[in-house]
Amino acid sequence: MNRILKVDNLKIKFKNDLILNNISLSLNAGDVYALVGINGSGKTTLLSSLAGLLSPTSGNIFIEEKLNQFNQTSMSFQPTSFYAHLTGNDNVRLLSPDPQRALNILKKLDLTTSQIMKKKVKTLSFGQKQRLGIAIALSKNAKVYLLDEPTNGLDIYSYNKLVEVIHEMSNQGCCFVIASHEWDVIEKCCNRLGMIINGRIEKELDISDYNNDVQPKLIQIKVNAEFSTNELLELDEVRNANRLDRFSWQITLNQNCTFESFQDSLRQKNVSINEWITLNHVQEWESIYNQLIEEGNND
């Protein structure tokens, strides 16, 4: 695999606060990496450091095996970053390394391109500014594209077109890091997922594994009797168990077992299942993430 980005033990401190704590990451050509985290978890700080906008306290960032090669990164503009009293066209000419490419991308994302280009940016809607910023960022011929909540303010048309553009560009040999809180965006755009909690990437998932149906299954059940977590984990079929309330559980079943065999094992303990559902991929990822947040808050 052609590795594009490597981050080694990245730390960033502001005064006495550790904002990023030993972040390590490796992305190959074609990777679209989702970065999920609540406000204040370090998402934007990590993107800014990858773009070379913030200097790390310690650690290294390699792009195509070269240290700090930030000219090969491009980060999406926030709506507040434009020259508000100039037109969209003026902003494209001033901020984009390839104005024609920016215009072509904007035409894909927005049915009102002519309005955006002619009007002063201060008169544009948030969504129009968002599309303009994305188009300028993606117009650069870079290896690493950094998008911070790119679907905020987008309508369904622009959202679907952005997904297409990301897939087209990643297939040409670059990679993306996308900070987002929208699970459907992650499912459609990304092949990898990192969950950042308190400045650390606590868990990574290979989304392609879920699409290939090789990951363990997450189910939610309600039973007729109370029993302990240890009793559940003793069962061969159970990989992980999380109590929701007195009689309800989220259970991760081992990959090779069936729901029927799990149900039979419970019956041998005189426990029956009253209700059950299989959670889809997005529900499973969200459940894993919420559990990590709870564990982080309890530390």
From TrEMBL:
Entries under InterPro entries matching the protein:
AAA+_ATPase, ABC_transporter-like_ATP-bd, ABC_transporter-like_CS, ABC_Transporter_VariousFunc, P-loop_NTPase
Superkingdom is Bacteria
Q: Does the keyword Transferase apply?
A: no
User: Which stretches make up the ABC transporter domain?
Assistant: 5-223
Q: Which GO terms describe its molecular function?
A: ATP binding; ATP hydrolysis activity
Secreted keyword on record = no
Pfam families the UniProt entry points to: ABC_tran (PF00005)
Alphabetized UniProt keyword annotations = ATP-binding, Nucleotide-binding, Transport
* SMART domains, sorted: AAA (SM00382)
Name the SUPFAM superfamilies for this protein. Answer: P-loop containing nucleoside triphosphate hydrolases
Under the heading PANTHER family, the entry gives: ABC TRANSPORTER ATP-BINDING PROTEIN ALBC-RELATED (PTHR42939)
By what name is this protein known? Answer: ABC transporter domain-containing protein
Species of provenance: Paenibacillus xylanivorans
- Which lineage do the record's taxonomy fields give for this organism? Bacteria, Bacillati, Bacillota, Bacilli, Bacillales
